[in-house]
User: Fold these one by one.
Assistant:
Number 1:
Amino acid sequence: MALLEVRDVTVRYGGLVAVNAVSVQVHSGEIVGLIGPNGAGKTSLFEAICGFVVPESGRVELDGTDISAWPAHRRSRAGLGRTFQRLELFGHMTVLDNLVVAAEAKLLESGLAADVVGIHRADKEALALAEDLLDRLGLSRLGGRLAGELPAGLGRLVEIGRALCTRPRLLLLDEPTAGLDETETKDLARMLRKVVDSRGPAILLVEHDVAFVSELAGRVYVMEFGALIAEGTPDEIRRDPKVIEAYLGVEETRKHATPA
Amino acid sequence: MSQLSSLLLLTLVVGSVYAMAATGLVLTYRTSRVFNFAHGAVGMFSAYVFRQFWVVWHIPLPVAVFLVVGVVAPAAGVVMERLLFRPLRSAATVVKVVATVGLLVALQGLVTLIWGKAGMFIPPLVAVRSFRVTSNLAIGSDQLLILAVAVGTILGLGLLLSRTRFGLEIRSVVDRPDLAELSGVRSGRVSAVAWGIGFATAALAGVLLSPMIGLDSYTLTLLVIQGYAAAIIGRLVSLPMTFVGGLLVALLEQSATLYLPPACGPCRAIRPSIPFLLIFVVLALAAAMPKGRLGAWVAIATRDETAAPPPRPRQRERRRVAPVALVAFGLVALMGPLVSARWLLSLEGALALTGVFASISVLTGLSGQISLGHTAFVGTGAFVMGALAGHPGFPFPLALVLAGLAAVPVGLLVALPAIRLQGLFLALLTFGFGLVATSLFGSSLGHATSGVTVARPSFASSDLSYFYVLLVIAALLLLVASNLERSPSGRILASIRDSEKAARSIGLNLARYKLAAFTLSAFMAGIAGAALGAFQTVVTYNDFNIFYSLIWLSVAVIGGVGSVWGAAIAGLVWLAGSVGAGSSGQIFFGLGALLLARNQQGALGALRDALGFFSRLSELPRVAVRGFSAREAPEISGEVTGGPP
């Protein structure tokens, strides 16, 4: 059984059909890519999976459980971790606190009354998890910095660390390479590979950067105009005439057209 | 029949003035993204100035009107936009609300200082002659004048917006300020002019309405709510629909005056809340059907376009807080027996309000939500305390806790819509709620002037012994807020304030935490209210007038809502204001909030920033020399000089 099963999801904004009956699967231990030109509906599908956008029809299942009607925070608790295309950090909190709060959100059940009278709950586990992840992301040095002051590349890593702190079973990344330079992109790819290989979550990547996806993903879905037009290994995708026409071709011509 | 037709006539006259005020309000809001809570207060202040010119100094009517509406008000609008509101454009909604609320508070204080508390009378603008319209309906020349001026102004603004180059610039700034800038529109100038026009419409509304409704510092201030209700029906876009909205508000108000039985207290209490109820119904309908056409329609009117997170100071080291707090507690405790009786009373009042400030700190500081209706919570606590403490032998601490608990359902009532609404709309909603609560307190008490007796505990009936009771209560409430601030829950609230999206993505149920913050804040405010009531020993409904919410919020901001310390400092500010400035303290409170809205650390934070600036300034020569001799220029030089060397 697939870890994530998306069946015939349709997202509509007014008259515009952003996602048209798309089905996608992600299995445990897999890295899956979702690519497509601007406006193809990738992000809408992504948001529908995370519960930030309500689809018009279709089902989203996690481990066989229908989570279509669940709000976003409940999906997160069930094991869907995510990042954002435009950084959404807790900017006025330290990098470490960004991760700690995520770990605590999952670990601690409501304890407002205890907090108010000053009985401090054991949050050592959360702190340990957060520090461990900072270490693995190579961010330990920055733990005390304010998240809002970081450059975009590091901010993205913090977001990934924060998502990992919720101990997801599936990590959804929305354009993780946006705003990163070449070295940072390579580092990110290496880090994500490590995460998955160390029995971490499966990953669903929404990306623009085809090279990045080809390097990481075992399987790739291609969307255009809200519909799925191809699915396969990166190699198969690259050879698919429909994909070349719809996406790669356009991208290539655009690259050539742009003066250096 | 003649009753109905005169009702319709009044509706037309008053409604057109509302619509005109609404047009100005919307113009400023849409061009500058700052909702001016003081819109009505500007009208109120202008009406007083106009009365001074016309009635007291005998300046001829046209000149007086021109001076107020054409010179003073627009100039004030332009200057305020430039100095105070333009820098707030991209600030968090809470900051903008606090700034304009500060202006409202200051204007009210200023009016009380100059012209006193008593209401005033302005004669009709023109000699009243009746024109018979039908056999049983006559229109007065004054009404005709008001109608003509208001409708003419709306038409003029409509033409300005739709037909002129400047109108085009305004519309471009409203849609996309960034693109407008690129195509050569100076959005700053546009917003300055919009504020000038906005202030002028408020002033004109004040001048036109005050001969009809009299002049006091409260009634006209609420014009902002009436205007907003009209504007929301026009979706903040359509002038004709805004006009309809203004008529609707006026119609409901006039019908309430005419048809509600005068003997029924709660019914009369409804009247001032009508515009708010209208806003609430529209918002509730929209929230109930977010996908429907009505939902989409209202969404345009309620969309908060700048959703910047509320500012939050750097996290400072949190050690060594306890010793400082203990020393402060000890010092205040020692002051009790040493100060004079008059000072002791001021000190007690400040201590009781420190608890209120702590509750505001939890809500506005920690969770980034805003309440302009805190008087509802505080008042509930005080009145419940009055009922409980009346029973001899009822344990005081238990009564205190019950008074706090009684405020919780009131808090929940406000908090439920707060889950859906943010920033500006939450502020409006809480303001309206506080308004209703004030009216309900008044009507349910019946005897507004005599008030309710709140007994002090038998062990602390003297002023000095009750001073210690208040000190302990204030300390406990501060401790609660401080515990929360430093706990995992505090961290979670901080994260929600920074980014709601990200908070949802890590599995936080926002509704639950927002409810929790409101509940706790209401509980604390209820306890503080109970303590305040027993300090005063007699409370009237006017002690919990909605405008106190605004004053308290202003003082909390001056103290600094960014940390729990700020609540304690706000207590000091209140003490200083009440001892040093007496009733005109309100002016300083308002101005303070206006100036410090951006600074979550309050007055001390601003002072620290200023000192930091001067110390950097004093380093400037050294830095410059160093930067000149060595090539590596320290970061600081760029920050201070801000230009090329």
Note: The longest strand of chain A covers residues 16-26.
Number 2:
Amino acid sequence: MSNDQSTTNYRWVGKRTPRPDGVDKVTGRARYGDDMSVPGMLHCKILRSPHAHARIVSIDLSKAKALKGVKAVLTCAEIPDHPLSEPPYAPIINDMHDISRNVMAREKVLYDGHAVAAVAATSERIARAALKLIDVEYEVLPHVLDPLEAAQPGAPILNEDQFTFGDETEPKVPSNLFRSITGKRGDLEAGFAEADLIIEREFISEPVHQGYIEPLACIATTSEDGCVELWTTTQGHFVIRALCAKLLNMELAKIRVTASEIGGGFGGKNTIYGEPVAIRLSQMTGRPVRMVMTRTEVFRASGPTVGSRSKIKMGAKKDGTITAAEVDTWYQAGAFKGAPVGRAVETYFSSYKIANVRATCYDVCVNRPKVAAYRAPGAPMAAFAAEGAINELADRLGIDPIDFRLKNAVGEGDESLMGSKYGQIGLVEVLEKVKSHPHYAAPLGPNQGRGFALGYWMHGGGLSSVSAHLLDDGTVTVATGNPDIGGSRSSMRVMAAEELGIDIELIKPIVADTGSMGYSHLTAGSRTTFATGWAVVNAVREIIDKLRALAAKKWGISVDDVIWESGQAVPKKAGQDRIKPLSLKELAGMATKMGGAIAGHSEINAGGVGAAFSAQLVDVEVDPETGFVTPTRYTVVQDVGRAISPDYVEGQMQGGAVQGIGWALNEAYIYDAEGRLQNTGFLDYRMPVASDVPMIDTVLVEVPNPNHPYGVRGVGEPCLVPAPAAVANAVENAIGRTMSWLPLSPPKILQAIEELKLAAE
Amino acid sequence: MTAETRSTVRLLLGWTPVDIAVADSNQTVLQYLRDQPQLKGSKEGCAEGDCGACTVVVGALKDGAIRYSAVNACILFLPAMDGKQILSVEQVADTELHPVQQALVELHGSQCGYCTPGIVNSLLCLNLNGGAADRQAIDDALIGNLCRCTGYGPIIEAAEKACSTELSAAWKTRIAAAQKQLLSWAADDQALALETRNGPYLAPKTPDQLAAALDAHPAATLVAGATDVGLWVTKLGRSLNPLISVAEVADLQSMRLTDSHLEIGAAVTYSEAHQALSEISESLGELVRRIGSRQVRNSGTIGGNIANGSPIGDMPPALIAMGASLVLRSRAGRREIPLQDFFIEYGKQDLRPGEFVGRVLVPRKLDTFRCYKVSKRFDQDITAVLGAFNIAIENGAVVSARIAYGGMAGVPARAVGCEAALTGKPWNMKTIETAKVALDADFKPMTDMRASAAYRTLAARNLLERFYLETQNPAVALELASRNHMKGLVDG
């Protein structure tokens, strides 16, 4: 019952257990966002802007409203407006002023795909036909896509009420630059003066989409009493409830949100898009309204991650000591403020002990969809710049890249630039594991290169609620408020079984709706197994306490004399051998007759997060004639704290690495000169397929997080952080020059090879 | 049309015969499955035949026996399923899971699970067709299924474990019954003629019926596998009215071997022609293997790839370099033209009113031939540049050269200047350098999201050089084709 993590003598934790969700998924039974239908349901379609930036002069709905089968049409007039939020600003800004406008454009459209109007009709076909009958008059305005250009004076301004925050000159003119965040320590000038080698580089990364295969989908049902039921695919139904209630000026208790099974999210399903529109249309018509985005809409109108431009300078001594580092990074927030700039600063150089350092990241609005989180939001692009520069430093100093990092590695007691203090961490263990891995010394063939990069991520904690119920027959339900996106039902079940000392098959993990549970934050930030898992441990410990009390009552002894051991209540004192232990099942059978049903619950705000490090080795082969890159070998070594369900942990690491391959080599948003997105489908937004990637080898390093009952660290996100940098480094190594602009598509590589040839001539 | 027509679609949904009065000829198989029998297991991830979440297994008669293929339900029109069997994910398990499902559960081949039904069906199909010989066969079966969670490793392991499992007796019995049902339907030889709110859908069974249907409906859209036409509906929102399918015309479904040619009917799918084309040229076979995905190749036809006139269709440049010709048919008769003359300019082909592509005649004897496809992603991607080379060399000199490129102009076209620069010259690097310069003058490629003009120009030149190098050193031949084999070579 203690938090002693030195034991590894677990029955379930760390074992390969059957999936609780396996059968439903292979038989097609699992119900996702669009797999529900409600009698009388209407179908919603959304009209979207064809322009990157335009003033809305007028919208004529009359013809659409007149079409047979159309039950309601709405514009921003039906979505409440809210004032701009005031400082201080939270790290993640949910400004209702912006959300209202992103859900439905108000004064202007700010990106290709921006929602302008919506229709509810008796069929999808009629709804689509009605969209064509809506006349919108636009006054097209100049647009800007690049964050550095957008931050300059004279750039087209997206939000005329936005003035740069924190600018001491109190600017009188609006700016696309919302704010910058800086982390610093030491004396940069002195640090660079100490250096034997200083490098300066620029890095660019393009926005990429989370690429979840399930498009956004929901159904809203409104009752005459004003209550709303919402079924939606989301990473956090409590957050959806909060955002919808706030936006629509409703009471929280009147919106009940049920999370469907979720077909991937990776951060992309953390916020609202069509949900409030479906709710409003349902309120206007008194009928259920289904809203499902097409893949094109998902690309055009839901948040991808930020694109970035970074200018970095680093200096080191001949012995490999990094003496100074500074970086400026511009992040594309999309149409509204809120790029993950704090996370960028947190990411910069956080694996390294550097005395003199500054990182500044700028949150800049551009005419693109508002960005959303994507698996370690803000980190992979910062790691691309930092690790790229560090690899170049090591290379030019002739130092092995792992030794270089070992020399500068942070340890317990060190701090990140944003002030995260490291406890017991596994960075050195991870690096040493890479060095001793056979991959590190394996020979390379012609046109092949090997890359390495290191990633840091501090996972989330926060609010989680759990309700566990012991049933009469000795089975247990464990309900959480977190959608299961990466295997949380399995890890909840494993931890509950471990605590209770019963077979995992007796435990049914459930994702409960917002009406049944206390507030539970998103399944995001690699927090769920950590924070919600902790609440599970608390909740089942409450059950155990009640069972001990029940046994004590039965035996007529003090509860203090009853201990819980291997799934049964056992008298503690010697000499009580005549008392036969009572199993959980026996106690469950007598509970309702001896006082009532037994349940345990926990509502926590989990602190005690633990930094995680992921190191990745990748080999690629470059085709010199076409510039085509094939990853041939990939190894991920990561400190996972403790793997509750190792199969799922490995699955996270493999999936993260493959997303990184796509990010590094192929994926990008491509716009034409008018600012219209060109690749709005999987045919032209190329994610990796099975033949594009090698089998991803995983090595789990387990340095437990001392703050958690089972030593858990977040695992879902750290594995993506270094991946683009590692792949890029492998390409650099294969062709023999630095590469600084993702994605490293064949044209860029072929051009680089040609330039090398010309330089050699 | 003859009087022998039928106005409802009949098919086996799983193992049960159903008769469907189709309301909308443009309705897709996926829309039908999800909306009517409310089978929600098949998912829509993209509606353009790319993600494979909608993959179903279709059983159809071929030479009197039922043959199974995995297809994308999202872009296939429901009437095309007439006389066939659809297995969606709901019909895969009976009292217990199919071994493929079991392995996916045990080996964690699904995470979020949204792509899983499609993956189950792709692997089921591999199992029904005799299993997987090697990793390449598994990759081929999976390339049309996007998974964003797993990184594919556990899915491949599940495939390795389960795809070669012997079919159970229950499955064999059910398949035999399904075959019997399809045979009994095929016996009455009725052509499908639907009247729907979107206009007629006709599926003639003979070339004469097809010619007559085209004559009666000159504005009709001809459809074969719908791997492109389907997207006009699902992606572009068009309504296709009337629709005439060439896929059921028996004569167009056949392939014939003559002494000089392989004759491919316009309704023959890539999958059906793959083996025969591979026997003509291994390089051509590899090109076919890389077209679309398994699902796309199981539906899409070589005739359709030519007839739709795309500048980036994969087959035309290769076939032009080979010297293929086309048989065009209509009520007025038939004519034969060289394939290269079919493509007049972007969006315009030499196809007269009432005419349709009947057969493609592919020469069996080639000189030294190779074709190379360049795309952002190796498999299942749209071509940026495709180069095909067919060159005769005697005594160290080029006797004749047929070179064609795709993606370099508004139509697939021969590189006339490049050919001239090679012909009669010694087959050496110096000649290649001259020919590269000539090649630059042959094309003015465009810049689009798939590649820049500069990249296309450079890649086109490099492909010529690669072809030369491969002829010099057979050891590097088919390097592109063997890319996937490298994965087996890394040590653990």
Note: Chain B touches chain A through 84 residues (CB under 8 Å).
Number 3:
Amino acid sequence: MVIQALQKVFRKPAYVILALVVSALVFVFAVWLPNIRLVAGIVISPDVPFASKLELPLSLLGSIATNFTLLSASYTIVIAILFGVYIAMITYFLKRRIKEVGQGGVATGFIGITSGVLGVGCAACGSFLLTSFSLVGAGGVLTLLPLGGSEFGIIGAVLLASAIYMTAKKIIDPLVCKVEV
Amino acid sequence: MEENNQQTKTNTHPLAMPIAVVIAGALIAGAVIYSGGKAPTAGTANQPQQQQVAQQTGDLEQMTPVTSKDHIRGDINAPVKIVEYSDTECPFCKRFHATMKEVMDEYGKDGKVAWVYRHFPLDQLHSKARKEAVALECANEQGGNDKFWSYADRLYEVTPANNGLDPAELPKIAQYVGLDTTKFNTCLGSTKYDKHIEDEVQNATATGGNGTPWSIVVGKNGKKYPLSGAQPLPAVKQLIDLALQGK
């Protein structure tokens, strides 16, 4: 069923492009997240040559290999791909059946994204997740998690996959008027 | 009945989606803001609340100036200084230590770059890192800058990271780099470097460090660039080249 829905959506090149663009944006955002201030500073600085404005941010993308564990790099890439697919599918769906938006699917998708962001931020030692937990005085919680916070990334990937499944179900559902039997 | 049938298809609470969107938006916005260094709070859990609030205004200009008292590899007068706040049990610091050695091979010999090492043990994640920071200071006490760096190189080489180094290895590393282990152990058992290490932790968070490795690249005109995490060598080189140009 999911395959059928994917075929239906991605038959149109516009949705393929949308998924690719969104996936790329999510991936870039996730990798740049620890250095978003540096990237922004370089890009907006009038003193920095144009070539450097491109080269430095691009070279920072290499940190997927140096600043991530194998696990966190894997789920970061998976989340980026799933997010792109999810956005393409939900866009396809919303354009056709606005009144029948599957709220469960949309909610699951957003929770998945949220959880994914928490997991992605935890790639480097004590980064976003530790910061957030420290703010609410619960920094020690992380040490209790067997994967040190990667759980959020894994949950995010699972929730996004669930959201894609739920959206696929909606897409495959035929547009018919239900009658009481 | 048909309406009821339709309602069962949208089978969640009507507020589920808006609530989820609000929560997601808030958390994602939080991620961007805090990871952008506006709210560094990665210090110890027992820090007073007002210190955490003060840290939320952290900026690079609060970096303690580099002096001859720092642990410096390379020429202190180098036009570019990379001030690294590091945790010896962080796997990314271990990786970045190797990257920085490559940087120094390329830029250090010509006196273009100096590498300044400061302590940033993340107690919540790596309870052994603070004692290892003391060990580094003890190496420095006995053998000066050279022994500090020899000890640091060996420590990062042998530790499996993530709190995996047996504390019994610390005197062995001291012996390996040619220190007097008796004096080293006495120093290691003392508390004389606790304040110095804590001061560096506080300075790391004050400058916006919210994870390790946290580095500040200081250009020849004094301009400071934040660099978070174990970034790859090409990225570090790009940043050094910009800093050398004073851009």
Note: Chain B touches chain A through 65 residues (CB under 8 Å).
Number 4:
Amino acid sequence: MGLTITEKILARHAGRDRVEPGEILWVDVDVLMTHDVCGPGTIGVFKRQFGERARVWDKDRVVITPDHYIFTADPHARRNLDVLRAFALEQGIPHFYDAGPNRYKGVCHVALAEEGFTRPGEVLFGTDSHTCTAGAFGGFATGIGNTDAALILGIGKLWVKVPETMRFVFEGPLPPYLMAKDLILQVIGDIGVDGASYRAMEFAGEGVYALPIEERMTLCNMVIEAGGKNGVIAPDKATLDYISRRTEKPFEVVTGDADSRYHSERAYQLSDLEPVVARPHSPDNRALARECRDVRLDRAYIGSCTGGKVEDFRAAARILNGRTVTVGTYVVPATTAVARALDQERIDGKTLRQILEAAGAQIAEGASCAACLGGPADTFGRLNGAEVCISTTNRNFPGRMGSRQSAVYLASPLTVAASAVAGRITDPREFLA
Amino acid sequence: MKPIIRGKAYVLGDHIDTDQIIPARHLVYSLGDPEERMRYGQYALSGVPEAQAGLPDGHHPFVKEGHTSPYTVIVAGKNFGCGSSREHAPAALQIAGVEAVVAESYARIFYRNTIDGGFLVPLESTEPLCRTVRTGDPVEIDTTAGMLRVGDKTFRLKPLGAVEAILRAGDVFAYARQSGLLR
Ligand code: SF4
């Protein structure tokens, strides 16, 4: 019996030839990421456990990316940034992307990929549940809490329970009206928000490999919304091209064995799927976009690690080019690199920024998580009342975007842009002639 | 881990996510500061919609005043703690005085965090107790025998399995020391 990619990576990092699902192993960690919300707590536990003068196990493997509460006057949030600064300085951490004009990157999961930290075959932990995004590059990546992160800071190891793997195969070419968001909302709607609890979700098939790299990240980003431990896509040439442009660090590609054992396997024909939304207040509350025409909107939001990458704005611009929005539309680039791309990428000779602005969208000045998780009261795009919002983000739990009275629909950037124009939930095929 | 945990139950439904356990706007307080950390207790479970707060009737605030709750055992449905990886969630419950959660199932990061941080004991029920137990009921949990008693009824809990070693050690650091990974 062979091993899945996930099993093989974990076995190698535990110095073993093979492992069985359910086993508990101590694995060596290649990269640990933390940010401004969980970093200070992690540092606190690290100092308590290992001593005030302790050093991290390997400063080259620690990545600190403040991103959540950056553009706010909240004094506690600002203090958290100071804690990160002091620690990075004290430990001499080279990969610290401080908020400010020089090194700031923005949302951690996108920044990790852009900076070449998401390498195939590696083990990456982060103090953020969407750390599973990095599995799009063929590594093992998952979210952890402060205590576990503090232990890694000290010893470079963590225990994991080897997950069973669920396999999802997308067959057929990708229709122009579907995006990774539709695929993953389809899956979550089918299996439920705890349908993959404690398990790995592996994606394969022609449809997956037709997706640009950033779209594959969207697919893996939301496995946590089905309770999954990690998402993973075996690398192909596109993966290796993306990584090799960003890092010189050697890595070893790991693929699953043909005779590996899966918990379950589901196949989808892409031509059967349609644009979907997740209705309030749960990512598995799926409906077809075209069946939600009656839902009038107050706001549209395009941003976050799931929906604020270059591909997401390219998709939104395809719809918004030459049209105007009829509801307040908030745009937040995930990273500073994405923000720059808004001025460089062009459609019909116009930059993405020009298209979005001409359509009437408001673009945030800085890249960050912004209203994806509500945040302090002065956060750009935050929902403060009973708004109905359609959003490219990944969670629509009660109050997630700021107000418990609000109602959030999750959808692809194509669907969000089409809906922003119509003022009600709209299938993007209405605008994609 | 205490052999017997006694207290009043606070009952919640399925899919209680970490934004309901501790809304994101509160994540800015320092967990290391003895004064400031109390705010996590004060706001614990403040994101739960009022109609679902304390089942079956709802509208029972978990913390009425100050930073501690009169309820020390949470009884919940499926997928408790889903959502973000914030360790502030189990910490907030602990600071409010919770000693154990009995849910039908957990989201894995929350589950790990409660155990590795030694915040509280996460137990799994073998049936939907959130439809049997009522908010305010006095309950008794026998962690050694794996039982929950409420009134004259006794319910079986699932064995803890491999993570019991970490709970017995106290937290993941103690466990790593026992495993010889840490001196
Ligand atoms: S953009 Fe949203 S989901 Fe992504 S890391 Fe930030 S808060 Fe989390």
Note: The longest strand of chain B covers residues 4-11.
